Give the backbone structure.
Amino acid sequence: MAAREVKRRGSRTRDPLVAYHELLEDPVLAAESAAMLTEGQRERRLVFGDRPLCVSLRPNLISDWQYRAVNTAAETVYAALGRLERALLSDEVLRRELDLDPEEEELALADPGFTAASPSSRLDGFIGDDGIIRFVEYNAESPAGMAYNDELAHVFASLPVMRRFRERFKVRSVSVRGRQLTAMLRAHRGRSSTSPRIAIVDWRGLPTLTEFEMFERFFESRGIHTIICAPEDLSYERRRLRAGGKTVDLVYRRVLTSELLAKDGVSRPLVRAYMEGAVTVVNSFRAKLLHKKMSLALLSDDRYARLYTADQRSAIARHVPWTRKVREGHTTYAGSVIDLADFVMANRARLVLKPNDEYGGKGVVLGWTIEQHEWEQSLLAALASSYVVQERVAVPRYPFPVLLDRMHFLDLSIDHDPYLFWGKVSGTLARVSSSALLNVTAGAGSVVPTYVVEGAE
């Protein structure tokens, strides 16, 4: 359903997308729903900085069979990433492919006190017209958007258009915050039997503060004392990590490793506590190994196929686009040996350049959006830095009712990003955008909640 063009078929249709849009043809229903969406977001502080988080009057609707297929794909790719992580830990030569800084490597090799480097993670992908999801990035460090997603689902559940839609279709949303808490507590139990005090740690002044506050309220509602603080608020002595004078047992780490290590004095208390095993940090600093964009290149490059099972190799071929580390030399493409730099130079229209260690769309170069001379300059810069090149994946567009001065139907791209908790999928982040780059942080996206439609085509 999410992977094909929506066509009007009249009132007899069982196509959920068409049925939802037909409901919005009632101007009163549409106006009431739009007003409630705006007010619901205001009441729940569903904003990213000063922008409303959602401007679409329709959620992401996905059939139950396709949701299961996406989840199976994500879990199989995650399992392959787990095998890659173990290989990286034991193989120094392989680890050099990641271009880790020495301090990043030291932290990655330290035992986090539990088995999964990333108890919670997210694979970001797109479902093509062929119904196949292709994952273009792996967020192993700090997958955002969970609390926003849950709160938006609550808002949508109250909309008149959604209530009418539920009269015809059986739908469900999948909450995520509880899974995040469970994953964190499981990690903590791996090293301590105490009931933890949680610190949500990231820099001050970020547009994601409202999501941290949502998590704080949720954790507190489950009887767990929680504080939001910045890295500079932490102190460490006598094997106690403290924030605001209170001992912290479990850090919900939203600050990225590279940004933390860039401020040595600020990072020292948290890093020392972690290295000495005095605090549980989720996700661990070991997550940096797979958070590097190079992780997908190590999945995709057939030189490393031996690391994976037959099922995993099949899933990688089907669900991970061709990805390589940008460097001089030869590699393979579609079974043929190629000179990588020459190939990249000649195939701008189907390739993307990505920095190995950035987020929020920073530094990403979409070949088909620039001129050849700009592409050549970008390639030269990538060769002198740490970049990957990835084959473009098809990103279909679908009509969404968007709230501007009034409701407009716009053709937008949408991604589908399953969250994984200890390797099992629960819930999805979905973002819509008119831009080729779907990213809320970059200012080019709007979050929509996902509803699974049972029995849909």
